[in-house]
Amino acid sequence: MLVLYDKTESSFISNGLAILNKYCLSAVVREEVNNTFVLNAVFPSKFPHLDKIDYDRIIKAPTPDGEQPFRIYMIRKLFGRVYISAKHVFFDLEDNLIEDTFIQKQTGAGALNKILKSTQFPHRFTGTSDILNTNNSRLVDKNVVTALIGDQDNSFVNRWGGEIEVDKWDIRFNKVRGKDRGIQILYRNRIWNYIYVYKHENVCLYMSIKSETIKLLLLKILIIV
Questions:
Q1: How far is Cα 57 from Cα 61, in angstroms, rounded to an integer?
Q2: pTM of structure
Q3: 3-class SS at 5?
């Protein structure tokens, strides 16, 4: 269910400002591990709650890991459609600076909590990690997102490794994300087409499947080898 909330919402339990399901023409959540986590949605140019959609408001949307909140950062109107782009609320931390902190001989959990406690402004986020190896990192004038998943040598992901998983205000940085749920896809079982993309970087598998009986299937499979 797509639910619109005001920008200050934190619990995401109520029906918020509006339920958008029946007006939405399409909604796609795209996540890349240790990178992006975004919602792109399309609405008609006129519908009852259009005036409530605004920058920084939050849309709760279903994902393979449960319902998650996404903050609106782009609204475009084009050819009779309204295009909405929103980032997971984790990316709120792009606006929260770490002025100077030195992490010394800490495990993943220690480093993550040191980063979250060293911010310029208070926030709701908490963190856990199962990474037991210790390391050091000096962070100066970095926002939290860059400190965690940036491509600099001193970022969390480059010093401690692991894969980030965000669930509302909870940040988990574990050695390996996901688990084997025993899912199998049997070709020719009323499936008439599929797209297969393989990327050899800790191995990620993406499949887009079209079926006679399934109108829309969002499937994310993480395979660890």
A1: 13
A2: 0.80
A3: strand
Give per-residue pLDDT as tens, 188-225: 556 655 555 554 444 444 455 444 444 444 444 343 33
Please determine, for residue 150, whether its predicted confidence score (pLDDT) is greater than 60. Answer: yes
| DSSP per-residue letters across 66-108 | EEEEEEEEEEEEETTEEEEEEEEGGGGGGG-EEEEEEEEEE-H
Of 92, 139, 142, nearest to 111 (Cα)?
139
d(CA 10, CA 5): 9
Asked if residue 2 lies in contact with residue 25, where contact means CB atoms within 8 angstroms, the answer is no
Write the burial class of residue 89 (CB in 10 Å: 0-12 exposed, 13-18 middle, 19+ buried): buried
Q: CB of 29 within 8 A of CB of 66?
A: no
Over the range 197-211, which residues count as b (16 or more CB within 10 Å of their CB) and which as e? Answer: eeeeeeeeeeeebee
User: Tokens 């792009």 label which residue?
Assistant: 94
